[in-house]
Design goal:
The protein contains 11 helices and 31 strands. By secondary structure, it is α/β, with parallel strands linked by helices. The protein folds into 2 domains: about 270 residues, Alpha-Beta Complex (Spore Coat Polysaccharide Biosynthesis Protein SpsA, Chain A); about 130 residues, Hexapeptide repeat proteins (UDP N-Acetylglucosamine Acyltransferase, domain 1, 3 Solenoid). The strands form 7 sheets. Strands 1, 4, 5, 6, 8, 9, 10, 11 and 12 form a 9-stranded mixed sheet that branches. Strands 16-19-22-25-30-29-28 form a 7-stranded mixed sheet.
């Protein structure tokens, strides 16, 4: 579809994913061992034959920019592109992005191109697979000016999403951001037959949640954003325009997970280790693309590995690994026990001279040292963990900030590049 521009929103600070976002933007956080979060919406676009893509970002965008530049290249005749639009000062605005709508507003000049009719707006922190062509076709079929992609959710989830109500034609007539009031939730409840008419089994779900995925007619997007100073689509723009514009829904009932928090990120990654994962990385008809790293195959010696993902370029010796994701270039020593953990690996292999220098300084090699035990943790990239280190939240602490580690939602996180000396117990 040559008349569609896709806009991926990745400009937030990513505070809920901190410390994984300390040195990188949220879309650049590693996912499933070898990918980045940004690869999900970009791959969905490419698999939907949408190849005019902008990524909006403002925090720690260097690694994201580098990843996109290396991973996605179009030939000179495709007219496709992927460009990062970082927040910048202009004559029109001297401010950083104030929210999702404001980010799009500040970049409207890039989207107002000849022969562009629609703007597809996507979130940069979700794990799902969708054919956007079906969404756009539904948008055109209903004669909508704006279409919001929605997913059925249970009543208990109301406080986590923007919840909306539709009529029989799919027109949105009510919208509340994260409602808590029982009367409001009752007014938004749909019957099972409302889902049945669209071929969806309600399975106890009675509410419709916004997925943060929107299709706008380009002229409508211009009018709505230029005529308002409101900063956020979910909180401000959509609730404001449903009474003024033809705002319809697109029902989606596939796997979809917001991975914008440490807990959701952790659980979504580990769910991929299942023999029948809800999100299938092996779907050849809708592949997930990323930067080809040309790494050697992993070397695995005398290990017991169950229900885990092992990425390229790893060296693992005599380890016991269960329900874990092992990222690229991971070095795991002898007699390591690892369960329910995410190891993001490394950006490079240490040279012999670096290793000699580190050992002179009594710094452990990069990777995980012999006889270490890691349970329920996220180990970011380029971490040096010594021998006989134990990382396990035995005391079930929900949140903690320490010099070399943090705990969020009971999950121990070792930030990027940290050094954990031998015999440390966390």
């Amino acid at each position: 579809m040559d008349n569609v521009i896709s806009v991926i929103l990745g400009g937030g600070q990513g505070a809920r994913l901190y410390p994984l976002t300390k040195e990188r933007s949220k879309p650049a956080v590693p996912l499933a061992g070898k990918y980045r979060i940004i690869d999900i919406p970009i791959s969905n676009c490419l698999n939907s034959n949408l190849n005019k893509i902008y990524v909006l970002t403002q925090f720690n965008s260097a690694s994201l920019n580098r990843h996109i530049t290396r991973a996605y290249k179009f030939d000179n005749f495709s007219r496709g592109f992927i460009e990062i639009l970082a927040a910048t000062q202009t004559i029109e605005s001297m401010n950083w992005y104030q929210g999702t709508a404001d980010a799009v507003r500040q970049n409207l000049r890039f989207f107002n191109q000849p022969n562009i009719d629609f703007v597809l707006i996507l979130s940069g922190d979700q794990l799902y697979r969708m054919n956007y062509q079906e969404l756009i076709k539904e948008h055109i079929k209903t004669g909508a000016e704006v279409t919001v992609s929605v997913i059925p959710v249970e009543r208990d989830s109301a406080g986590s999403f923007g919840i909306l109500k539709v009529d029989e034609q799919g027109h949105i007539n009510d919208f509340f951001e994260k409602p808590k009031d029982e009367k409001i939730i009752n007014s938004l409840t749909l019957s099972a037959s409302a889902f049945d008419r669209r071929g969806i089994n309600a399975r106890g779900r009675s509410l419709l949640a916004s997925m943060g995925i929107y299709v706008f007619n380009l002229d409508v997007l211009n009018e709505v954003l230029k005529g308002s100073e409101k900063s956020d689509f979910g909180k401000d723009i959509i609730p404001d325009i449903i009474k003024k514009r033809r705002v319809f829904t697109y029902f989606f009932d596939g796997y979809w997970e917001d991975i914008g928090t440490i807990k959701s990120f952790y659980e979504a990654n580990l769910s991929l280790t299942s023999s029948t994962p809800s999100f299938d990385l092996y779907n050849e008809k809708a592949q997930i693309y990323t930067n080809p790293l040309f790494l050697p195959g992993s070397v695995i010696n005398e290990c017991k590995i169950t229900k885990s993902i092992i990425s390229d370029g790893c060296i693992i010796n005599n380890a016991e690994i269960h329900n874990s994701v092992i990222g690229i270039r991971s070095i795991i020593g002898n007699n390591v026990i690892m369960r329910d953990s995410i190891i993001m690996g490394a950006d490079y292999y240490e040279s012999e001279s670096n290793i000699r220098t580190n050992r002179y300084k009594k710094m452990p090699d990069m990777g995980i040292g012999d006889d270490s035990r890691i349970i329920g943790a996220i180990i970011d990239k380029n971490v040096h963990i010594g021998e006989k280190v134990t990382i396990e939240n035995v005391k079930k602490i929900e949140e903690l900030n320490a010099d070399n580690y943090m705990i969020r939602d009971y999950i121990v996180i070792i930030p990027k590049g940290r050094v954990i000396p031998s015999h440390t117990v966390i």
